[in-house]
Design goal:
This protein is α+β, with helices and mostly antiparallel strands and 263 residues long. The chain has 2 domains: 8-86, Orthogonal Bundle (Arc Repressor Mutant, subunit A), CATH 1.10.10.10; 97-253, Chorismate lyase (3-Layer(aba) Sandwich), CATH 3.40.1410. Helix content is 25%, strand content 28%. The protein contains 7 helices and 11 strands. The chain has helices at residues 24-36, 49-56, 60-72, 97-105, 130-136, 187-195, 213-218, and strands at residues 8-10, 13-15, 76-78, 84-86, 115-126, 143-153, 156-165, 200-201, 205-210, 231-241, 244-253. Strands 5, 6, 7, 8, 9, 10 and 11 form a 7-stranded antiparallel β-sheet that branches. Strands 1-2 form a two-stranded antiparallel ribbon. The protein has a two-stranded antiparallel ribbon with strand order 3-4. It is globular and about 60 Å long.
Length: 263
């Protein structure tokens, strides 16, 4: 096999593939995260090139490359005297439920710019899925709380968010069966404040499977012929407190949607 040696050129000469310090991708990632979590809202100006240079200790060329990446992604545009600003409709990668929990716990918004949710439902249902029963530590056909909503970016459905909640949570958070949105704060916060028990999540798991016809309808995907299957990405996180598992959180991403994995 032919050995391939990868090198890159940095101002001033040839260096190793990954040089120390910040690169243009690091700078772009910094501002992308601020746009995605709403810290930089549509119409907000990014710092000047000189300010970004100073902040990251990089060259003007590095800053220019980072801004070009964000522009190519549709997140920013150049507005003359205003400099570089966040676009009115930035292309924001849809978040999973675990992303949202982490973001709101850090004081950020529940929704990304341009994002809304519809189809909020809540029900007490018999759980017949053996995998969910095993993860929640319940018997087959025991009742669980199931909450569902559809996240939309600029009114396009992108993610179905489903929460399968252990029935013991109802003794603490009585409105889990409330229809419609519960507000900006996730129910974990109320539970933790009432019980003093911290809820922690397992690593987020990802898998592909075929979508159900109900899921395709929720995502506004034209229903195919009966012999055609449509694959979707599914992420799952199981949440625990000191007494055991308390929720399984699933997100079903629309076909063609890229999911940015959590760091």
């Amino acid at each position: 096999m032919t050995e391939v040696r990868i090198e890159s050129i940095k101002e001033g000469g040839t260096v190793a593939y990954r040089s120390p310090g910040h690169g243009y991708a690091d700078v772009a990632a910094h501002f992308r995260e601020k746009i995605e979590n709403g810290e930089l809202a549509p119409g907000a100006s990014l710092p000047s090139v000189e300010e970004i240079r100073t902040q990251f200790n990089v060259s003007a060329k590095t800053v220019s490359r980072a801004l070009k990446v964000l522009k190519d992604e549709g997140m920013v545009s150049h507005r003359g005297a205003l400099g570089t600003v966040v676009t009115e409709r930035p292309r924001v990668a849809p978040a999973s439920g675990a992303d949202r929990v982490a973001r709101t716990r850090n004081g950020g918004p529940n929704y990304s710019p341009g994002e809304t949710s519809t189809g909020h439902t809540a029900a007490l249902l018999s759980c017949s899925d053996p995998g969910i029963c095993r993860e929640l530590g319940i018997e087959p056909h025991e009742e669980v709380v199931v909450r569902k909503r559809v996240f939309r970016v600029h009114d396009n459905p992108v993610v179905i968010g489903v929460e399968i909640i252990h029935p013991r949570a109802l003794a603490v958070v009585s409105d889990l069966l409330k229809q419609g949105p519960r507000g900006a704060v996730h129910w974990f916060t109320e539970y933790e404040e009432s019980t003093g028990k911290k809820i922690n999540g397992s690593p987020e798991m990802r898998a592909a499977r075929f979508a159900s016809r109900d899921e395709l309808a929720d995502l506004n995907v034209p229903l195919p012929d009966s012999d055609v299957a449509v694959p979707v990405l599914v992420t799952r996180t199981t949440w625990h407190d000191e007494d055991g598992p308390i929720e399984v959180m699933e997100d079903v991403f629309a076909p063609g949607i890229w999911h940015a994995a959590r760091k």
